[in-house]
Design brief:
This protein is an all-alpha fold and 321 residues long. The protein folds into 2 domains: 229 residues, no CATH class; 50 residues, no CATH class. It is built from 16 helices and no strands. Helix 2 runs antiparallel to helix 13 and helix 4 runs antiparallel to helix 5. It starts with a helix and ends with a helix.
Length: 321
Amino acid sequence: MDEDAAAEPVKVAADGGRQQQAFDDPRIPWTGKPGRADILCWAGIMLSGIFYWVILPFRASLVGTHPVFLVLLNGSTEGIVAAAAFARIGHGTLIVVLLAALVGIMKFDPLFWWAGRLWGERVIALFGGRRNRGAKYMAHVQRWGRKFTWPAVVASNFLPIPSAIIYVIVGWAGMRLVTFLILDAIGVLLWAGMLAGLGYALGHHAVVVAQTISHYGLWISIGLIVVIVFFQVRSQRHMMRTASEARAAQQAGVAQQAGAGVPAEANVPAAEGQQLDLRTTRRQGTVRVPRAGSPAIAASSSPAATRPTSSRCMSMLVSEG
């Protein structure tokens, strides 16, 4: 009964560890069981990625035929340049191009701001990748505050890093949603205005290039998909390897804790000169053997101890009786 009672807490702890392990995956930004807000935000981010994957095969074909619609879908650089070039030759206006760019670029940005508010440093580390770029920007936020976060949001489209990292950092830093949307809109208009000015200046030449790209759009799309799939698979393998190493380390820690919880009497060495205890417990049907290195093991390994004697056999029978 005592051993069963002692084993039960260990079993419960192990089950709790498995349940915690199921919700503590390094590929997800939360710890523990997710709430409704966690599921909604993460589902929105996943759907945004799927959305861009779905429209990827159509980008090359739309850039020379319907560039404004392409800008409205994903706010692509080539779409803004092409739409402004078409506006130069009389197909559309720059105001429509800028408004389409405002919607196309900003439509998923609040999701990443929300992710920063919900999950903080964990999602920053997740989006930071192998280089852990988010940690460097977090240090800048802690040092400079608004002097860093406000210009970072405005310049996020010009920086050579994913804008999502900036958005989750400012969400973690506590920037209000209205402030974030205003700063993000200013940055998008500056970025789209620069691209639109380039396309308007190129005019007919940019239109010819866009139409040529659309003509070979199928092959360009296939090439883009192959390259993206390659890098995504490699990144996924790295994440799986990291997760398996973390899981193995966690299991080793649980096993070590379970080993430390073994009753102390199992580790008590036999007394000096004590013979090998082969008493069989009738209730449990187990044989208790002293720990390796004890005097009883040393005595039993000697030639004299291996030869049965009548006194030893008698003592064994008495002890079993």
